Each structure stands twice: as C-alpha cells, then as structure tokens.
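Objective 1.3, modelling of assemblies. Example input:
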Amino acid sequence: NRVTRLLSAVEGELRAGREKGDPTERELRVTLEEAELWKKFQEITNEMIVTKNGRRMFPVLKVSVSGLDPSSMYSLLLDFVPADGCRWKFVNGEWAAAGRAEGRTEGRGHGGIYIHPDSPNFGAHWMKAAVTFNKVKLTNKINAGGQVVLNSLHRYEPQLHIVCVGSRHRLVSHVTFKETQFIAVTAYQNEEVTALKIRYNPFAKAFLDAKDRNPGGRGLPESSDS
Amino acid sequence: NRVTRLLSAVEGELRAGREKGDPTERELRVTLEEAELWKKFQEITNEMIVTKNGRRMFPVLKVSVSGLDPSSMYSLLLDFVPADGCRWKFVNGEWAAAGRAEGRTEGRGHGGIYIHPDSPNFGAHWMKAAVTFNKVKLTNKINAGGQVVLNSLHRYEPQLHIVCVGSRHRLVSHVTFKETQFIAVTAYQNEEVTALKIRYNPFAKAFLDAKDRNPGGRGLPESSDS
DNA sequence: ATCTTTCCCACCTAGGTGTGAACC
DNA sequence: ATGGTTCACACCTAGGTGGGAAAG
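Predicted structure (tokens):
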C-alpha cells in the first residue's frame, strides 16, 4: 500500500505525459522563446560577457519542446559553436573581422558544451514547460566544471541537442537559432548593447534607475543631506 | 565526430561512476550527514515551522549514498511519516500528548511525499556527492504542488526512499533516521529550539548578532546619531 | 599609445530568518 | 480568556548587474 503510494508519486509526472504526449519523436518540435528580445540584440550584434568565474547569459536561452516520447529519458545539451573562423574587433561603432580565430576551444573535451541540470529526465518533463538555460555560465578561463569556455572576441552560435538516454544513447535532434548568435567579450563594446541589457535585465536595475532619474547626466549623486 | 563528442559529454558522469561504483545494490548504504547537529535538536525535541507558503527545514536533511548501480536510474523520495497517533501540546516547558491525531495527511495523494529535484538520475550522480534536501518546503495548507503538507502539532519522522526507475519501477531501499524526528508547529514553542535554530542557521544571523551584541537586553537600538 | 582584461564596488534581485502584533 | 495561526517587517544570505579604475 505504502509502496504503491510511493511508486505512484514517482510516476505522477510520467503518467500525465503519457496521456498527453506523442509516442514517438517523428513530430519533434523545438521553439525558441522570447525570440523578439533576442532579435533586438541580434540587430545590433549581440555581445555576451565572459569572466574568470563565469557570467550568465542575457537574454536567457529558453526553448519549448514537443513531440518527444513522454516516457523515454532524454538529456538536453547546449553547444556553443564557433560561427566563423575570425577574431573580431569593434572599431568606429562597427564589428570587423581581425585575423584568424584561435582554435583553443575546439577539441578540448567538453569545452563549449553545457548539460541542462534537469538532465536526464523524461520526455514528459521537458515538454511540460519551457526549458530554461539560465544557469549556463560563460568563461574565458579553464575552470571548475560546468562552465562553458569561450574565446573572447569570437563569434558563437548556440546549438541545442537532445539526446535519448537509453541502453544505447542516440542523438535525437540538434537545432540552432540564428537569433542567439553573439560575440564573446570581456567588456561591452557597443553601448547600444549595454543599453538593451540594462533595459531588460532585472539584475541591472540599478543602472536603469540612474538613467531614468537623471537622463542627461552620469554618475550617482552622493548623499547630499547635511 | 561532433556526435561522438556530444555523447561523450552526456556519458561523462556515468563513466566516472562505472569505474568506481558497485554494480549491484547488495551493499547499499545510506548515511545521515550532520548527525551531530540533528542530535542537538533531537535532545530537546525538534520543531519545524509550517507556513501557508511553505517553510524550509533546518537542519537540512542530507544523506550520502553508496552501493547503487552507477548506470541505473533512480529517484530519491522523502516521506514524512506520522510518528504516532497523537496531537501534541507544549505546556510547562514540556511536550505532552493531547488527544488523537487528525488523519488529514493520510491517503491524500502525495500529501507527505517530496521527490528530490535531481530525480530521476543515475546511481553515479546520487553517489558522487551528498544528496541535499534543502528545497523541501513544509506547509499546513493544501497548496501549489511540490510542497509537503503536514498537520501542525503532530510528530513526524522523515523517511528516505530510493526507487529504481526502469521499465518496471522497484523500491530499492527505505531508511528512517530517528535523529530527524520533529513536531510541526506554526510558531516555535520551546525557546531552546529557537536558540539552536538561530545559532546554526545562517539565514537567522540577524537574531544571532542581536544577542551577541546585547546579551542581556532585547530589541535593536534605533539609530542614536544626532 | 592602444587594446584587452581584471578587480572592486554600489546597487540590485530573490528569497530565507524569527519577531511581535494582530487575528481568529 | 486561551491557544493556535497569520501577517508585515527588519535583517540577513546568496548572488547577478555594469561601472570605472587599474593592470597587463
């Protein structure tokens, strides 16, 4: 009785999936969430900060998935693929190619690969809500695990992979979203990018308020009380 | 090549486990972490706050697990079992039985069951580090999912279950730790319990500082600058 | 000089504490 | 009155922002 209750708890999500989901992956579909926001950044060439200890991405990569087998087990991976063979440079308000890429990231183990922390999990789990990669951290140093190592001033294209985890793993899908391309930087180059990040990232609220209160000026006022 | 690299990434943790772990569950062992701390609370009868929106446990239940099959898939569940048939009352500095229990929690779906958020996962995952149940939330209201519903002024004993998730689920182990028994309350009854919670829970630091700075008195000083 | 990276910082978000008064 | 619960609150932990000076 108690055992039945326990197993029923474990299977809860799974059963819900079985009722609703698709039994095969034939109609697998992956959609990028918040594509409008990504496009705003894409239009002016997106930049992502890399730091020694790792920096989150903004915008955050979110996808909604459908068409998996609800009761099969999958892992979701994010792969940061070099978008070209160039090193880039920001001059006169524009990005320009500046020499060959340094191939450091290539062939270096898990270099640019991030495994979603919910992995592995049932198809039902991945499909019940949008999958959010808000914990990915980008770094320029080979570091403690779990972080994605990128080369600064190189362009990357995030790629999503879905792997079916069974007795034999098999790659189910890999999708790229052009909208999410970005150039890795250690400090923002284009102030339009900075402005967008501040505008939409809640964690940068401090700088948004400063601009709102004091649109022309710069710098926060010292406490002027006597 | 890229596919190989990806699958290798997914299997990384798994392979690490295969090398070190035990291929069967014959020698399964589960150990409670921070047992000394739990015992301090147990000696004076532990209490856990329940609130409408859910309250974390302190101490946090942590276990280290060994002896699983590294490449099999398991889920870990926490089950809050009524420790007796009584409702309890704190009078004259002591807990005393006060009438029959209200059987609300029993038979009510997932009432007292919490699934560890890393579930399901490989044996290797559960064994590579202590498993922490710091996200469990205890509530006295039937609520949004994921929270554990308990009856205030009733005594509970946390029980850990390990379920092997396969084509057919099977219960691998259930363990209880006497040290982790507690009485659910909406407000602390025994001030010794409060003192221990403040002493060891970093989130209650504010009250620790107040006592340290002003051991005899009560209340924080207003800013006395002119 | 110039370009890139690093570090510390004030300022946020997000949310976990027990308190004490109010509520029932 | 009594005993249990709820709520707003000040005060923390934990950690995510870009800025700007300094360093390489």
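Residues 49, 55-56, 58, 187-188, 194, 197-198, 201-207, 219 of chain A lie near DNA strand D (CB under 10 Å from a C1').
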